Amino acid sequence: MRTRTAIIGGGFSGAMLAARLAERGVASALIERTGEFGPGVAYSSQFDRHLLNVRSSRMSAVEGRPDDFVRWLKAHHRRHADADGFAPRRLYGSYVKDRLAAVEAAHPGLIERVTGEAAAIEASAVRLADGRGIEAGAVVLTTGNPAPNVAGPSGGTGRIIDDPWAPAALDRIGADDDVVILGSGLTMVDMVLWLQAQGWRGKATALSRRGLKPREHGVGHDAPVPPTPALTAGPLSARLAEGRRLAEQEGWRGVMEGLRPLTAGLWTSADSATRARFLRHLRPWWDVHRHRLPPAIALTIEALEAAGRLEILAGRIGRLDETGDGVALDWRPRDGARRPRLAGRWLIDCSGPGHDPAADPLIGPLIVSGRARLDALRLGLALDPSGRVLRADGAPDERLFVLGPPARGAFWETTAVPDIRSRIEDLATALAGASSG
Ligand SMILES: Cc1cc2nc3c(=O)[nH]c(=O)nc-3n(C[C@H](O)[C@H](O)[C@H](O)COP(=O)(O)OP(=O)(O)OC[C@H]3O[C@@H](n4cnc5c(N)ncnc54)[C@H](O)[C@@H]3O)c2cc1C
Fold first, then answer.
1. Is the shortest distance between the CB of 214 and ligand 1 below 6 Å?
2. Per-residue pLDDT tens for 269-302?
3. Which CATH class is domain 160-215+292-349?
4. pTM here?
5. Which of 265, 347, 351, 388 is least surrounded by CB atoms within 10 angstroms?
6. Of residues 162, 149, 147, the one with CA closest to residue 327
7. pLDDT value, residue 146
8. Residue 176 dihedral angles phi and psi, to the nearest 5°
9. Which tens digits make up the pLDDT trace of 51-92?
10. What ranges make up the beta strands (E) of 165-242?
11. What are the phi and psi torsion angles at 101 (to 5°)?
12. Which stretches of the chain drop beneath a pLDDT of 50?
């Protein structure tokens, strides 16, 4: 008899895994705390200027059907059906919901939608916070990125917005309020765009370690530059020098595109010391070149900077105080100069995912009981090459898998749709085999 898989998290990863499993005859329970199945955090925004940061031609949710998303756009939103363009993320959320519903209709009874908060992973069930137990032969964690945790809990006067993706999170910000933003990446960009569209006239000061902001996409698809052996082997410093040389010669976007299909393999084959050096020295640079802005969005951000309404600073965060009518933040500029505290009416934490996987209420107990262990750099759970969780004794758990952003420690390149899509295929194969065994 085929056993059921419990999937914890009903965003893109969980919903599209459930769909693929159903197409292979495997039943699943898809557990999602919000009751909204498919869009997850990334594709829930209903704001039209929150665009995909990947061209539509790369955003098919189905491995082996590369034009699936563009065909869907042509059928439902012809105006946005440019394969080389960047569609609103809300449309992508609808696309994922449509695909899930279509698979459910074609394979009735194989996907059970469960609205609830998964609180514990037991031997043969997932326990929900309300006490319900969801029986399952295998469990896949597709819980997405943990919330940021730099600013800490918002106490005091409530002027620290620590989850910028929470519904209506920015609604309290007044039209003339100045804001301090922790982080200068894609989330910072999203928040500033949203404020601007509401008629906000204040100033935003964004602070990150290096003060880097995401680079922009080229006008059209960039042909991948084939990586040279010197780019993919040897000490990191030599690879970086080769990367710079190639970028100078062929263009940096093409170099990044050429590396894309190799990145997960390069990460998997690197030892811990190399991975740690990459994280310490290269990661900020990697991120801003890898996760790029659509050109129209980059123009808006440049215009805000030119008008003095957005300032991006490089430095370390110091003491943060809520001052009654705002916030004040000590910071240490990267150049060592003395600069005044940063002040604003609000602080928005856009510093990226939290970094203590052991503190996660689902994961922590697995580690304590030896059913799982963290990867050497504590980016997430240690996994084997097929995404199975490694127990404390190093043996893989045949029934427990991780997919999507929480698998970053094992695969690194596992947060964007093209990468998740191909991992879904591997996982569906493993789970289909296990469930019929
Ligand atoms: C703002 C933003 C924009 C992005 N834009 C793009 C893009 O344009 N292109 C691209 O390729 N990638 C993009 N990404 C990357 C994104 O990570 C992936 O594309 C994908 O959406 C990840 O989906 P997920 O299901 O793994 O995670 P999520 O979307 O975070 O979904 C996880 C789900 O799990 C649920 N959950 C968590 N814990 C529990 C629990 N204990 N019990 C029940 N439910 C739980 C959450 O409610 C959530 O719905 C973007 C990411 C973000 C944050």
1. no
2. 999 999 999 999 999 999 999 999 999 999 999 9
3. alpha beta
4. 0.95
5. 265
6. 162
7. 77
8. -105, 10
9. 999 999 999 999 999 999 999 999 999 999 999 999 999 999
10. 179-182, 204-208
11. -65, -40
12. 1, 153-154
143 CB less than 6 Å from ligand 1?
Answer: yes
Residue 417 near ligand 1, beta carbon < 6 Å:
yes
> Residue 240's closest CA among 231, 248, 249?
231
Determine the atom of ligand 1 nearest the C-alpha atom of 187.
1
Q: How far is the CA of 88 from the centre of ligand 1 (A)?
A: 16
Same fold, 5-146+354-436 and 160-215+292-349: yes
Give, for 105, the enclosing helix (H) or strand (E).
helix 89-106
Ligand 1 pocket, 416 CB below 6 A? Answer: yes
Q: Establish whether residue 194 lines the binding site of ligand 1, counting it when its CB lies within 6 angstroms of any ligand atom.
A: no
**Residue 307 CA, ligand 1 centroid: distance in Å:** 33
Assigned token pair, 53:
């940061």
Q: How far apart are CA 142 and CA 30, in angstroms?
A: 10
Task: Count CA atoms closer than 13 A to 308's CA, side-chain side.
Answer: 0
Ligand 1 and 16: CB distance under 6 A? no
Class of the CATH-defined domain 5-146+354-436: alpha beta
- Ligand 1 mean position, distance from CA 416 (Å): 9
Query: Can you give the residue ranges of every domain in the chain?
Result: 5-146+354-436, 160-215+292-349, 229-290
Distance 31 CA to ligand 1 centre (A): 14
